[in-house]
Amino acid sequence: MMEEGAIDEVRTLLNRGLDPALPVMKAVGVREIGAHLAGRITREEAFAATLAATRAYVKRQFTWFRHQLKAPRASRMMVIDQQFSERILPEIFSFIRQFLLTPDP
Predict the structure, then answer these.
(1) How much is the average pLDDT of 71-97?
(2) Helix axes 30-37, 43-69, angle to 10 degrees
(3) 3-state secondary structure at position 99
(4) In the predicted structure, residue 59 carries a pLDDT above the cut 70
């Protein structure tokens, strides 16, 4: 994320003076990168904190989905591997890039 323009994207969000309570301002990485831009933490600390926040978010998603599978309609739902796989990262990032506020270089 950092090498693909996340810092510029967060800078753009912060420069807009948006309400911190807005969902976009609560997105994974915004708080961490914002702290870096404000000089409170280093770039490396922001990267580590963003990585930790991303992993926690993925874990919450899996927990939610696992609970959904316990519902009566579970037999009709697709079952996914509970282990996050880095082999699908390019596909995930390609999807996310469609929604970035800043243009892809």
Answers:
(1) 60
(2) 170
(3) coil
(4) yes
CATH code of the domain made up of 6-97: 1.10.287.890
Per-residue HEC secondary structure of 11-78 comes to HHHHHCCCCCCCHHHHCCCHHHHHHHHCCCCCHHHHHHHHHHHHHHHHHHHHHHHHHHHCCHHHHHCC
For residue 3, report the phi and psi dihedrals to the nearest 5 degrees.
-80, -15
Token pair for 41: 């933490």
Residues sharing a CB contact under 8 Å with residue 13, sequence separation 6 or more, in sequence order: 24, 25, 30, 101
Strand, helix or coil for residue 100: coil
Give pLDDT, residue 105.
54
What's the rounded Cα separation, in Å, for the pair 40 and 58?
26
- Residue 73, pLDDT > 70, answer no
